[in-house]
């Protein structure tokens, strides 16, 4: 596989987007389910059934996060260094939330004490809400720009503060993330529950879906007025890696540049709206399996909307515009990318096969025994997700 430098940079950008999308699709389901614990489950048996529906594969599917981090480190070392240097406190909070989750999933049943279980359920719920919010805060700061500067020796200077990362726009994106993952988790739980709690879950799907449609539209309108970034100097796709060898500008509406030059890209955010609307409609028709597929489509398109809007920027700077990092000037060397491609070509198919198996396991396990009152036998449902294939 001998590719020129430009092609390799594009390939690795696509792989990074794929890894992030895979992470949000897989881990987002666990996050959404955790957030639903205090909203949906009323008894310890219900919460145990919800946790049991995600626990067997949740830890393994975090491999997507490991791949995304490893890919960033290997293919975009400058962007990796800047991100972890400037947003270390935000990322530390996310790490703590992730560390709390496996403890809750696997040690919740270590004791029969109701108080012990209730406290772990609270930990899982807080972890879910915190992760969903911080993922939105992170995405919002990428769109708004991170306050950093690179000097002539490529030293990194963070020119902001922690609380500056929380502003009206990033809080709006956090709300979009919350509503999206709640919709995703609720759409999945429709496959797993029945009885009184099933009706309650459908109500949550409607509320989360309506909230996402409204908030996603508001975020889109805000971005039309948000200051975006654009490289004004000549771009050298095969040039050497040096972020300071360019000039950039910032102006309102520049995040829409890619859509104006390639009108077909409008299909990405439109499909996010269509997917959310289809989730609500299919839920109304009791087509739970297809509602879940529509929710997955919504998540994928929402992530791709952010990626397409940012391209070719990886990490824009709102304090030192010329220090902004793009896929053309922040990558590893040509030799490194070429060598790494063999590893990636082997690892990604295996990861996708494992994820496909996990999703098949989640769906084909049939509805769980969450009823809203007690645990029943799965055979008493007389309904399986496979019924929705027809």
Main features:
single chain; 390 residues; mainly alpha; two-stranded antiparallel sheet; two-stranded antiparallel ribbon; 13 helices; 6 strands
In short:
The chain has about 400 residues and is mainly α.
Give a verbal description of the structure.
With 390 residues, the protein is mainly α. It has one domain (5-389). 65% of the residues lie in helices and 5% in strands. It is built from 13 helices and 6 strands. It has a two-stranded antiparallel sheet with strand order 1-2. A two-stranded antiparallel sheet has the order 3-4. It has a two-stranded antiparallel sheet with strand order 5-6. α9 (196-225) packs antiparallel against α11. The longest helix is centred in the first third of the chain and has 36 residues, at 5-40. The protein is globular and about 60 Å long. The relative contact order is 0.16.
